[in-house]
Design a protein that fits this description.
alpha+beta
Amino acid sequence: MARSQFSESLSLLSGARVSVQDFVMQGREIEADGENMGLQTEGEYGNVEMDKWTPGANAENPKLTYTFKNESNNNLAGKVVNYEYDLTDGTWECTTSVKQEFANNCGEVGEGDDAGDTT
């Protein structure tokens, strides 16, 4: 059950990643929570959030976070999946606070790291 619920996070984040990358390549601003992108951000087991992103020489890497609802499987409830887009090389990095036995294609954040921090 936890693995199938985890796959929802990757599905929603996948769509968001494509849109974020498109906006970045076009030099377009991304509004908080991607309001100007027309994304599906609400899932059955959690939702996607993102910070406002403004293009420019000092722009920070865009970040996406999927947070599992408390009603999700006990192994996932309250956990997060983070994707960060590296502006210098055009790649995405995935980290999660979910144990690796339930996660796939995403590195586990170590103890003491704050996987929920998207700033």
